[in-house]
Design a protein that fits this description.
By secondary structure, the protein is an alpha/beta fold. Helix content is 37%, strand content 28%. It has one domain (5-250): TIM Barrel (Alpha-Beta Barrel), CATH 3.20.20. Strand 5, helix 3 and strand 6 form a beta-alpha-beta unit. The protein is globular. The two termini are 17 Å apart.
Length: 255
Amino acid sequence: MLAKRIIPCLDIRDGKTVKGIEFLNIREVGEPVELGARYAREGADELVYLDITSSHEKRKLFAGLVRRIAENLNIPFTVGGGINDVSDAGRLLDAGADKISVNSAAIMQPELVSRMSAGFGSQFVVVAIDAREENGRWQVYRNGGRIPTGLDLFVWAYEVQERGAGEILFTSMNHDGVKHGYACDALARLSDRLNIPVIASGGAGAMEHFREVFTTGKADAALAASIFHYGEIGISQLKTYLAGENIPVRLNNDK
């Protein structure tokens, strides 16, 4: 069985790592290169950096930050935010990113997923999906969770898989930042429907939540932010716990 991955997520705004609750109440939590290097030392399997800045000029600065991250990191990292065409993706991959993540742009132009997969390979393409459960249905949102799309989570995830996405990063907006556990039922449905890896995001607050997301939720990887940023759970401590629960993880001495 493949090892389950632990992935800290770093949202970047104006060159700083920030974190919010349910996509709101944003505050700074650290310097992204230093924080990423620390997580790598602690045993993170991968990192995700998401640029949440809106202006074009600041996005060019983000490409420079990606170069700095690549120079200081020895684990794979994914970057996303503001990738609107194949050239945007290529620029970030050229800067040193291992994978790129698209969200709103894929919704607006689904053929972008196909073009990126054809141009770079599906292993480089992660499609991020933000969805909220409303009256028993999971609706996909775009633009940082601000605009409902009418798309169904499971239908959309299957479509982007068929277009060549290599992974799905699903964030439950209902669970984001509230630390009550992941959306395990929805994650299990996704994992059963898809044949590509599913990364769970939104809701981690205790080590037991990671055990649940890998067992009940059938996720291939678990992403979290605030519990790592604020030192509530250490990555090494978490992996030791998971190994004790018979969940396959890479411990530091396995690397």
